[in-house]
Design a protein that fits this description.
With 557 residues, the protein is of the alpha+beta class. It contains 14 helices and 30 strands. Strands 3, 7, 8, 9, 10, 11, 12, 20 and 23 form a nine-stranded mixed β-sheet that branches. A five-stranded mixed β-sheet has the order 27-26-28-29-30, sandwiched between helices. Strands 14-15-16-19 form a four-stranded mixed β-sheet, with no helix packed on it. A hairpin with a 6-residue loop joins β29 (540-545) and β30. α1 (21-28) crosses α11 (445-455) and α2 (44-63) crosses α11. It starts with 20 loop residues before the first helix and ends with a strand. The protein binds adenosine-5'-triphosphate and magnesium ion. Adenosine-5'-triphosphate (ATP) binds next to β8, β20, β23 and α11.
């Protein structure tokens, strides 16, 4: 490809509305352009990378025996009513009506459609196992689209659905997909981890997520430093501390704490550690009332654990400020467990702290030296927090380490949820109708591109892993338009590279070498060759790998 004929649309300035590096670099490199919140076009450069990702996925899915098909984005409501998800799905599901006032949605996922296909096409156990996949556009009306294509509203997913006659078969299909995912992510050349995960509302027992490790990742994942344990932090049990509660050493006192609303304000203002402060969160109860959840100041609430507690509304909802003030008579920043007239659940770790600091349930006042059992009731305890670095791992043998990850893939065992609700039976060996056991397997194709950049960049721009690079080689002539010698040698080299099947970008634009070099670095091409008149006279060219410190000379031949 000649750069003069390619739409290289690089930008010098960092776009102000792009918060994370991958989003900034995708815009600056001219890979994507935004039209509305979470809605993007892929320009020719970006599309080349997207196609590489798709191709690797396609090859490995085919190799694993899955069959590619293509399902519609526009999905009739009837199918979603059959599965029961028409009513279950919230505003993430984009609903619409056609000109005949028939309800429909733009598919956020395709379990309903694929089950509809299955029940029409397949009727015997002899046709199983079966795995259908597609690479297709999804729409989810995300509440907060952000980070460019990392969390967009329209995005491309590879989704696969397996069908088996029994649970063992489903397990085998799942294992085959697990291995296919390992092959796919290895081929991308990214640093990733497979971790066990929550199956969410979809149900089913086993589920694994694939995460690309990156500091900007939205998910936290916990690894055992000694063992094999790895899981999304959402699902990891925090073991109760082995230590006894510390004994009270002083009388409880009220202190004035104007302007101190956060744990950090309090810890600084009163010169205590965050561990010594109680964080009291008020959430909605199932019956419309409120429930208090108390954590150590340095711990974070785990929403999945909290919403499973008796009496707490699921999905978890933090109470509105007005409702808190109306019910409790003081503002959020001053709530605490002493004298609180609400059902209160205390995290195991918070329950062993003595002489703690907590809100006094009066504006701008806190207690110091408060103690469980003495100044308030013996706590009802539960595990409601996220694990942190250094916590024991769940089998109690080692320590956990927390890293950040970007979820790029998710594999689930669905069981018979959709095949039963949508009556997709096949005949078994005895001629009896059986609802097949399903699995579903997603990869965020567009998200993979952003995640790859998040993990591979420097101050100059993107550093593509070889398998994803839009071009392998950049040929950068100096004075291409002025020197016949340079033009001749460059065109020769370009033709030879093409003949060998290399993906080359020849930068024949009439620009200063500095501009050309910085563009090639920004868009992340792994290898660069520079041809100059001086070099050609000396029968040499200059080579630099994208992450090399300096260029090297090589003989032209
Ligand atoms: P998340 O927790 O990030 O919202 P999810 O659990 O909703 O993801 P799945 O329904 O399992 O995601 O979808 C499969 C894959 O699609 C995800 O692993 C992710 O890589 C990708 N994906 C999901 N939502 C988006 C989005 N809004 N933008 C881009 N990719 C997405
Ligand atoms: Mg989601």
């Amino acid at each position: 490809m000649r750069a003069s004929r390619f739409h290289l649309a690089t930008l010098k300035e960092t776009p102000v509305d792009a918060e994370i590096i991958s989003h900034q670099l995708m815009l600056r490199a001219g890979m994507i352009r935004r039209h509305a919140a979470g809605i993007y076009s892929w320009l020719p450069l970006g599309l080349r990378i997207l196609r590489k990702v798709e191709q690797i996925i396609r090859e490995e899915m085919d190799r694993a025996g899955a069959l590619e098909l293509l399902m519609p984005s526009f999905q009739p409501a009837e199918l979603w009513q059959e599965s029961g998800r028409w009513d279950q799905f919230g505003p993430e599901l984009l609903r619409l009506q056609d000109r005949h006032h028939r309800d429909a949605c733009i598919g956020p996922t395709h379990e309903e459609i694929v089950t509809d296909i299955f029940r029409r096409e397949v009727n015997s156990y002899r046709q199983l196992p079966l795995n259908f996949y597609q690479i297709q556009t999804k729409f989810r009306d995300e509440i907060r689209p952000r980070f460019g294509v990392m969390r967009s509203r329209e995005f491309i997913m590879k989704d696969a659905y397996s069908f088996d006659i029994d649970n063992d078969g489903m397990q085998r299909s799942y294992d085959i997909m697990d291995q296919a995912y390992i092959n796919i992510f290895n081929r991308f050349g990214l640093d990733y981890r497979a971790v066990s995960a929550d199956s969410g509302a979809i149900g089913g027992s086993t589920s694994q997520e694939f995460h690309v490790l990156a500091d900007s990742g939205e998910d936290a994942i916990a690894f055992s430093e000694q063992g094999d344990f790895a899981a999304n932090i959402e699902t990891v049990e925090a073991l109760p501390p082995r230590t006894e509660r510390s004994v009270a050493s002083a009388e409880m006192q009220t202190v004035d704490t104007p302007g101190m609303y956060t744990i950090e304000d309090l810890a600084n203002g009163l010169d205590v550690s965050a561990q010594q402060c109680m964080k009291t969160l008020i959430v909605e109860a199932e019956d419309g009332g409120l429930v208090a959840l108390v954590l150590r100041g340095d711990h974070e609430l785990n929403a999945l654990k909290a919403e499973r507690l008796d009496g707490v509304a699921s999905p978890l909802r933090l109470a509105q400020r007005e409702q808190i003030t109306a019910t409790l008579g003081s503002d959020i920043g001053s709530i605490g467990p002493v004298g609180l007239k609400l059902k209160t659940i205390v995290d195991h770790s918070a329950a062993v702290v003595g002489d703690f600091v907590c809100g006094a349930n009066q504006d701008d006042k806190h207690y110091i030296n408060a103690n469980w059992g003495r100044d308030c009731e013996e706590p009802v305890t539960a595990d409601i927090r996220n694990v942190i670095d250094g916590d024991p791992d769940p089998d109690g043998t080692g320590q956990l380490k927390i890293l950040r990850g970007i979820e790029v893939g998710h594999i689930f065992q669905l069981g018979q949820k959709y095949s039963e609700s949508m009556q997709a039976a096949v005949l078994d060996e005895n001629g009896k109708g059986v609802a097949p056991f399903m699995g579903c397997y997603g990869i965020g194709v567009t998200r993979v591109v952003a995640a790859a950049i998040e993990q591979n960049h420097d101050a100059q721009g993107i550093i593509w892993p070889a398998a994803l690079a839009p071009f392998q080689l950049a040929i950068c002539p100096i004075n291409y338009h002025k020197s016949e010698v340079v033009k001749q040698a460059t065109d020769d080299l370009y033709q030879q590279c093409l003949a060998r099947g290399l993906e080359v970008l020849l930068d024949d634009r009439a620009l200063r070498p500095g501009v050309i070099f910085s563009d090639m670095e920004l868009i992340g091409i792994p290898h660069r060759i520079v041809l100059s008149e001086r070099g050609i006279t000396a029968q040499q060219f200059e080579y630099k790998g994208r992450s090399d410190d300096s260029a090297q000379e090589f003989p032209l031949d």
